[in-house]
Amino acid sequence: MAPPFRPGTPARTPNKRPVSVTKPSPKRRKISGEDDRGARTKSPGSGATRKPPGSGARTKSPGRGALSGLGKSYNSKSPGKSPTPSLKMKGDAGGDVDMKGVAANNKSPADRKARKELAEVRKKKRKPNYDLEKDVVSLWEKTRQRNIKKDDRSKLVTEILKKMEGKLPDMAVNHIMARALQTCVKYCTPAQRESIYNELRPHCLTLAKDTYAYHLVIKMMEHANKNQLQQMLSLLHGNVVALLRHPNGSPVLEQAYLSANAVQKQELLAEFYSPEFRLFKGMITAGKGRVVDLLATEPAAKRRAVLEHMTLALQPILEKGIVDHSIIHRAIVEYLSISKKSMIQEVVQQLSGALLVRMLHTRDGAKVGVTCVMHGSNKDRKKIVKGMKGHVSKIARDEHGSMVLLSIFDVMDDTQLATKVIIKEIMKDLQELVLHKNGRRVILYLLAPRVTRYFPPDILAVLEPPAPVDSTNWKPEGKGAIDKDEEEEDEDGVVGVGKKDPLLRRFQLLVTSGLAKELADVCRVHARELLHSQWGTDVIFEVAMGGANSELWKAAPSEVTAVHKAISSLVALPQISMDVDDKPEEHVMEGYFSSRTIRRLILESQLPPSGVDAESFSAIFWSTAIKGNCKRWAKGHSAKVVSAFGACADEHTKLAAKAELQVLIDEGTLQMGPAFSHQSSEKAQ
Questions:
Q1: Per-residue pLDDT tens over the stretch 118-136
Q2: Basic and acidic residues: which segments have biased composition (predicted)?
Q3: In terms of Cα–Cα distance, which of 141, 134, 127, 229 is closest to 179?
């Protein structure tokens, strides 16, 4: 008996060759790699070719699988046709449901409303506080309006808190409710804020680790009074290190550290030192918060235990890359202050690169950066410089980050890499940097290094080469000698000192890199703006002086002379002029900063070094700007500029100006110092 016929399989007749019958199937998009019959074919470089239907391989019946619910409407008498299957499915009651009709009904407004109501019902089942959240959101949106009155916002905040009373811990973990609570904490009354704190305080540690609630905890710390902050800090006791390792908890602890006073900060930091400080409160005494002070009278074994505990606490934090917070920067500084050179180098190797750049925005982070530059090897310093690529201009503008650039100028022997990464990026924003309070220090450090006029003692103290702890000098009071392993010293040379000559290094960074000529051009083009600026005057003064060791005079004498002429040409401008916004602008001879800078240049400018054919600034300024016009400028701030010629360092210019100045002195128009009068009387005798 012959087997029953199935569509898609070859019909077999006795004593005849099998004839292939085309498989009818619904229309579908042809997949890449299939032939016209829908069979996979062999791609170039693949394995064995899969046999298409009709060649003896078994195929899946079209009545099975994904199309089984559409019914069979194939006509075996017409194998070439593939009729479209009927879009009917079995309904709940057993009848057929027309899918085309359902699709049409879904587009009607009534059906959309029904589906919306169904979604609301499902949300209410899934969220027990759905109605409450909906009401709070509507009120919260009103409080966020910019033009809302203070009294109206206060009423809305009161209504929101009244609705959420008793449910604040549950509401705080919701992403919208947490934001609404932050608004309430910001604008509520002190009594309302106290009630919020009382309800949320027992849950603060849990909320600090939540994805949404930790923002609320930060806001609570920002607006907390002294008592509320102290209570919240007491909840964090014993969990400082654990929270710092948590991605959500670390910002909470950072805010706690920033909001705390000096004693509270030391208590938070002390948990890095030893388990004793984590288990017991009140062990920090006034004046002994630093780890060096705590270990001053302790035995060597205690020091080793503290180092080991701090290493175990800081290592996971550094491995996770959580280095943006100031409390971590301070903990690293304390760790480095008691570590040996070998331990410091391990930290340097771990922080070298882009990780260190994220720490330079705080003072302690900058100290860590300077320590890494000083203690690092040439390879470590190269990694630090490469990690700054693209961020040099921002680092130079930062109050603390700029100190790391200064330390690189002190010890970096690879001046080619420093020029390629640091100097070239400085040259791109040179005009903005010379006018910036912190950015100008990076340039002034190359022109006049370590001049106390520009660099305060606290900055110079950070830039001093930090020496590692000498364990041979660590003598605890009355605790006996230190173990032999504590006396081991590293012998890698002097820390914080480069091998290259400092003058050669500075010449390569300033002159060879092309920074000197670029700087002189900026001072020439923007001389007026720099002279009127509080910070730009220092840069144009040092450029006009030719550098600390006359580097600019030797490398670019014509550019320095051009700066002198540009300053002198500004005197010829009218006394009352208009700026870009049509506002009156002070003359350089009458401006507060400009007049004092010009006077300083006249007093301190000297002849160029031997071998340079040029004149001093005082000679050029006298011959082109002041000569014959002394009476015009003998009043106000400009009188100080004119009188400076009587005490300038250039003797030739001083003698040339003496006759004209003496006339003004005799008339009483110009007042000079007693030294000038004494010199004049001696010449007369």
A1: 877 787 777 778 888 889 9
A2: 89-99, 109-121
A3: 141
